[in-house]
Amino acid sequence: DQQVKQNSPSLSVQEGRISILNCDYTNSMFDYFLWYKKYPAEGPTFLISISSIKDKNEDGRFTVFLNKSAKHLSLHIVPSQPGDSAVYFCAARGGAGGKLIFGQGTELSVKP
Amino acid sequence: GAVVSQHPSRVICKSGTSVKIECRSLDFQATTMFWYRQFPKQSLMLMATSNEGSKATYEQGVEKDKFLINHASLTLSTLTVTSAHPEDSSFYICSALGRGSYEQYFGPGTRLTVT
Prior knowledge:
The complex is a heterodimer of chains A (112) and B (115).
Chain A (H helix, E strand, L loop, with lengths): L3 E2 L4 E5 L4 E7 L6 E7 L6 E7 L4 E4 L2 E6 L4 E6 L8 E8 L6 E3 L3 E6 L1
Parallel strand pairs in A: 2-11
Antiparallel strand pairs in A: 1-3, 3-8, 4-5, 4-9, 6-7, 7-8, 9-10, 9-11
Chain B lengths: L3 E4 L2 E4 L5 E7 L4 E9 L5 E8 L5 E2 L8 E7 L2 E6 L8 E9 L6 E2 L3 E5 L1
């Protein structure tokens, strides 16, 4: 049972345009959501997070939106840069001890 | 951000042998550390959660006698893959959580190849 889903395995965007990565979840008890960026053969790097009591969090070029009624969150990157090309994972925090549930990842390719 | 290291970054071992992977939080005390494995083109699968000074909590389907986890201090957790088999070949990643923190900080990962 996949509690966190990223339905788009890949996304291609032109440099300078907006990248929108989507994530859906099923468990309404998740209280915190995070986005991570990952390069091959490396560990994920934390990007941005949002608490379930908020609907938006912005940090530079990265903005995360949370729609609790739809159980949906998205990561907006604007403007997109070639260095943003990587796999992006969304994760939800649920249960005791800070355990994270990860989505399958979306591979973003930003073309010059 | 916080720094987490893993050692070794890459290891090749023969079937039947054991391999130990270390995970260290370098600039903060990690009350909880997590161990994940990732197969190619797949998501990160949580294997176990370890809290300093107590036994690890394993996810369903993960053999605790095969994947031994020790969290002896607030900055070090180890994962030992015992009697390794080729199907244990994978990318193993640890993460660390500081007290009162929500963000997990990940190590760079360890590529294990069992021949």
